[in-house]
Amino acid sequence: MTEKLPEPWLRGALSDVHPLIMPVLFSFQQVREDIRTYTGDLTDEQVWRQLDGLPPLGFHLRHIAGSVDRLVTYLSGEQLSEQQLLFLRQEATAGATLQELLRAVDASLDVAEARVRNINPQTVYDARSVGRRKLPTTVVGLLIHLAEHTQRHLGQAITTAKFLKHMS
């Protein structure tokens, strides 16, 4: 039996990352590990099964990938592209396999991690804006939201996966 590692944030500091940036990277690692642990034996059909009107697991996986991409766009001081807006509108559309969804999450986290690692810590209080209404926030505000929003949907994905396994 393989010994289970502690959660990423309990494995020690990342020597090449500023302490203000680390929590986001720990969050991403937690997502990578937990999604595989809890979805590994589900079928593609289960991934899109509706449970009493709640969003299917496929939505949560696709939303993690899409929301990470969108939040990192705002973090970079940019606004969303038409392609990102189209992806947002199609997050609940069934069809992708579990493996396709997991690859999309990994790819989104990889790109986001590279961009987050390049943030200059001296810019954490710099202003940023979100959405068409250009709601005000800061780099650190977006970093915090990136970590907590990703974890929120990870928790929903885990709970949904557990229900799906219990029902089969």
Notes on the protein architecture:
Helices cover 58% and strands 5% of the residues. With 168 residues, the protein is mostly helical. The protein has one domain (21-33, 55-167): Four Helix Bundle (Hemerythrin (Met), subunit A) (Up-down Bundle), CATH 1.20.120. It has a two-stranded antiparallel sheet with strand order 1-2. Helix 1 packs antiparallel against helix 5 (98-117), helix 1 (22-39) runs parallel beside helix 6 (139-167) and helix 3 runs antiparallel to helix 6. The longest helix is centred in the last third of the chain and has 29 residues, at 139-167. It is globular and about 50 Å long. The two termini are 26 Å apart.
Brief write-up:
By secondary structure, the chain is mainly alpha-helical. It is 58% helix and 5% strand.
Task: Record the SSE blueprint.
Layout: H1 22-39, H2 44-47, H3 57-75, H4 82-89, H5 98-117, E1 127-130, E2 135-138, H6 139-167
Antiparallel strand pairs: 1-2
For the structure shown, list the relevant keywords.
168 residues, single chain, mainly alpha
